[in-house]
Design a protein that fits this description.
By secondary structure, the chain is mainly alpha-helical. The chain contains 11 helices and 2 strands. The chain is globular, with a radius of gyration of 17 Å.
Length: 222
């Protein structure tokens, strides 16, 4: 990944936003893990190998971590997620609880409940249900988290929280963030193209507790 300010700012803002939604106890190292993952190579491989558990703490206890596995799951599901985020099926905001319910109903073979996520008609290809397109994306992210060894219930919760946050910011660079995680956007020289309008990042930062504080802390450490 290049060190371009726009791409780095997008990754930092979105890493903190996703961590705040899906793994708030890991926000302190959200930016570091996302940047490491996006750079690829040995750093990414080492990061993913440690997910979802690492040895940490003064006593060497085993601490469960979510973010390395979550970055890997989001990157692997990039195209499905971007398609879901760009779908007109669910135009309004959706909550984590709504997505969890939709995923569970999908697995049970029932259509998602009416009136839970927008008034647009269902996408014909999904077979009905306003939230099915997003539920499918949540289920895929959860499946990949479980492949990393995460408990199914915890994987569902993390996946639904992440997708809800991405959907809320779909007009503020969510798709581009997923592309950066997945390694998209490189030109012939291997550098990434410039990215996010600063106004969108400011709006995102304003909605995410701790993002500005984390940014100031990183600035002091440089």
């Amino acid at each position: 990944m290049s060190n371009g300010p726009d791409a780095s700012a997008r990754l930092e803002a979105w890493a903190t936003a996703i961590a705040s939604a899906s793994a708030p106890h890991e926000t302190d190292f959200a930016v570091h893990t996302a940047l490491t993952y996006a750079r690829g190579g040995r750093g990414r491989r080492a990061l993913v190998r440690r997910a979802p558990s690492v040895t940490a703490g003064s006593g060497g206890e085993l601490v469960t971590t979510v973010l390395p596995a979550l970055w890997d799951a989001l990157a692997a599901s990039c195209e499905l997620l971007k398609s879901a985020l760009g779908s007109p099926v669910v135009a309004n905001g959706v909550s984590t609880a709504t997505l969890l319910l939709a995923v569970h109903r999908r697995r049970d073979g029932a259509p998602p409940a009416e009136g839970t996520g927008g008034s647009a008609p269902a996408e014909p290809a999904t077979g009905g249900g306003e939230l099915l397109v997003l539920a499918r994306a949540v289920a895929e992210v959860s499946r990949r988290l479980q492949a990393h060894g995460m408990d199914p219930a915890a994987a569902d919760q993390a996946a639904a929280s992440a997708v809800a946050a991405l959907h809320a910011g779909r007009d503020e660079g969510a798709g581009a963030f997923l592309g950066l995680l997945a390694g998209e956007g490189r030109d012939a020289s291997g550098e990434r193209s410039a990215g996010t309008p600063r106004t969108g990042l400011r709006r995102l930062a304003a909605r995410v507790p701790g993002l500005r504080r984390s940014a100031r802390a990183r600035g002091r450490s440089r």
